[in-house]
Design a protein that fits this description.
Length: about 300
């Protein structure tokens, strides 16, 4: 059974594994005023309606189709395509963990209190990145997988793994919103191509680290908080290992292969990327220019050298 941390990590990484393969569309035109950002949870409402109707019938597939899939928002439709979500998969997930899905109605009831937190978070984001663009955030119900990612229609965040943590939900929203700004800064197609580029361990760590750095500036904490604590206690040794692994492009210990290895800290690449971005930022005379360079960074080697992080 995976730890809670592993589940949260799964939510954070899916954007890069799956989402960027689809970032090959024209530059979007979303609001630049955070007050106009949309938090869309009608799919959650539809799921609750479906779940309640399951009490009155044994025909689960028909109910899920009628109340959830057939009335899907653009966000859920995008998610269904990306993750092959079907009524059969969702039915199986509900049967495996009915109590978890039962709690979704309580999550929905608390949305009126979360909306002000969401707006406050985006206002904080705008203070860090005044020129940011704000795609809608879709809250979704998936097949008991924790997934957060950017897409051409907005942020897609499944809520089954964060039902009890508004703080983690906010961090995921900010992390993915930071990825979206990276994609805007570089151009969507150029950004998406980074994740299919061979021998790009450093670039991947810096992309994730950049999103973590923005998250830290906004919320004073990163998504990989537990891994950061471990990293800071073993920083010298981990720096040495990173240099060695980077020379051989051995990314398994640092990136997504680490999720299933419960014997080692997970996603250390996110954290060392965060530390490199922080070093780059601290050395910069003009912090706003440094932020733009973190978002639009196209030469990982030059960026790392300029940061001077590994030579300290």
């Amino acid at each position: 059974m995976k730890s809670t941390a592993a589940i949260i990590h799964m939510m954070v990484i899916t954007f890069v594994i799956i989402g960027t393969n689809h970032l090959t569309f024209a530059q979007p035109n979303y609001p630049t005023n955070p007050e106009n950002a949309q938090l869309i949870y009608s799919d959650v409402q539809n799921f609750v309606n479906a779940f309640e109707n399951l009490n009155h019938t044994s025909d689960t597939i028909t109910v899920l189709n009628k109340y959830y899939f057939d009335v899907a928002t653009p966000g859920l439709k995008e998610y269904m395509v990306r993750h092959k979500l079907t009524p059969v998969l969702l039915k199986t997930a509900i049967q495996k963990n009915p109590e978890r899905y039962k709690k979704i109605s309580g999550f929905l009831a608390n949305q009126s209190s979360f909306r002000p937190e969401y707006k406050k978070t985006l206002l904080q984001f705008s203070e860090v990145l005044p020129s940011a663009m704000y795609p809608p955030t879709y809250l979704l119900v998936g097949a008991n997988r924790g997934i957060a990612q950017a897409s051409k229609v907005g942020q897609l965040i499944t809520i089954t793994k964060v039902l009890d943590s508004n703080e983690m939900l906010k961090k995921l929203i900010v992390h993915e919103l930071a990825h979206f700004q990276q994609a805007i800064a570089m151009g969507m197609q150029a950004y998406g191509s980074l994740y299919g580029k061979p021998n790009n361990m450093l670039g991947l760590c810096l992309r994730e680290g950049g999103a973590e750095f923005i998250t830290f500036l906004v919320l004073k904490e990163i998504t990989q908080a537990k891994t950061l604590t471990y990293f800071q206690s073993n920083e010298s040794e981990l720096k040495s290992r990173f240099i060695k692994d980077l020379s051989q492009q051995e990314e398994g210990y640092w990136l997504w292969n680490s999720i299933d290895d419960l014997t080692t800290p997970q996603l250390l690449g996110y954290v060392i990327g965060f530390k490199i971005c922080d070093a780059y930022y601290q050395r910069a005379h003009n912090k706003q220019i440094a932020l733009k360079e973190i978002l639009s960074m196209t030469s990982p080697d030059t960026f790392l050298e300029t940061s001077q992080y590994l030579v300290k």
